[in-house]
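Readers of this paper often ask what the protein records in our data store actually look like. An entry from our holdings is shown next, in its original layout:
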Amino acid sequence: MLDRRNFMKTCSGMGLAGTLFPGVLWAQAQAQTPKKITKEMIENAAAIADVPISEEYKEMMLESLNGHAKSYEEIYKLHISNSVDPALIFDPVLPGMKLETERKPMRISTAANLAPPSAPKNLEDLAFASARELAELVRTKKVSSLALTEMYLGRLKKYDPTLKFVVTLTEERALAQAKKADAEIAAGKYRGPLHGLPWGAKDLLAVKGYRTTWGAGGFESQMIDEDATVVKRLDEAGAVLVAKLTLGALALGDVWFGGVTRNPWNTNQGSSGSSAGPASATAAGCVAFSIGSETLGSISSPSTRCGCTGLRPSFGLVPRTGAMALSWSMDKLGPICRTVEDCALVLNAIHGRDGKDRTVQPAAFNWDATLDWRDMRVGYLKSAFERKPDEQQDAAKEEPPATPEEQKKREERKKRREAARALAQYDRKFNDAALAKLREMGVKLVPVEMPKFPYDAMVTMLTAESAAAFDDLTRSGKDKLLTSQKDFDWPNTFRTARFIPAVEYIQAARARRMAMDAVAKVFHQRRTTCDYESNRSSRRNFAQWVARQRRTETVDRRCERFPERRRPRNSRQLDVPRKIVRGSRTARVRARLPGSHGFSSPASKVDACVLTEAG
């Protein structure tokens, strides 16, 4: 019997593996019975793929294509799991970059004025406190870890029916960890600022004894008998895991098998994703902090939508061992918190090599809360902040629909365009507020532009890698169990990815390298094109701090679904340059924090970049 893997091997032998031809021909063969390749199929497939094939080659191919080569079938029999990474490793470190490898003690904000002299009568008054504030209360024994854990568990249960951000409560594990933390602190064994603090994990991180669903239908009962490295490290830091939080199915969006995770500030909106649950729960004051993941915006986007501070670390800073793989060359794990310093405290605990994830670099992360942000020069993408919602001109150019089905698809596309346009208009005022707030804080803004490259076309790499990561899901037909089945959802994406030529994947990787070099030069070139404070700035280390003004109305607005919610303490103290922490109530971090990065670059003039949300 002819199988697809044998077939692809034969095409490879003919020098056609890097074209669309094999996929087209295979599809034709599958549509007929018996499953035998004919000369006519080759001719039709060659015409579709625009691959000229002479007659003598067609005859030669017929015998080979209907043979029984064994190698692909043998690989298939290995049943390769999602946890197995490819032999190839993506390296983000460019020539000339230097890794800061020396780990130094954290310089966290001072304890003075951080916490109230005693615990409030109603412990829920601490629900929106920063991790740094909670840490001081726990350290000084004014609040017990057990009390905080019970409070956050109660809030998770109370608001989950509305926000749908919980997959599994880890209550038994959490209570045991909290009691242990209190006992250790009472005995004088304080592990650090995360000791005793309740947190939530995006449900693509494996935790022993609890299901790891990846948010996807068909995986609701999946058990992985290990703890992810990040989970282990937070256990070692004394943090208390209270819940496994939602993600869009297989890390896409905010739709999972249990429904749609909601933005707590506007429950008519989804939370965005795919770190949907971590962002929603953190914003709603239901955990002290959370861990999310990002491949292409999955920390930054929900943090933007829900008003959190999300830190997307550089690729290769945090080990992904025990986490679901989507794209081996793009996946990253990072914290979602309520302040910038909270993100630093968490990243300090989870970064560094674990001996298993081979992509992790020997980079240090050294946080300094005393940094004066007025010393920084912040670059921002001027064209992105000035961009107006695209006019819907593409619809006018379309030819009249030929069939009712085509008309239906066009109407769906039109609705999506209109929704995207409305959302862009809704978000515009917050983009403008970001720049206004930074200027008000005394930050020097420098307009920059990204080098012109086909960035969207490079997403081919993500598409191909994700399809490989879930190859068995597609071939087995189990992709039909996923909740959402639209043209932009994973099932259709995985199927279409089978037609990406291997050559084009490599070309996208080469284009990506060119883009990396070009973006690195943006920072170098600002040294010569920007002249003010040159002597002072030339001595600064490179730091790519990508921040964005978060929705300022979230500080003042009380969601009708949360009548007891109060304004976060100290939320208006954004102008105090002695600490960057307070800026985090309205700022989102998407890359490296200033003074705490692991990568440095020679001749840097722009110390930071502010970007709008992409996609």
Remarks:
- The longest helix spans residues 404-440.
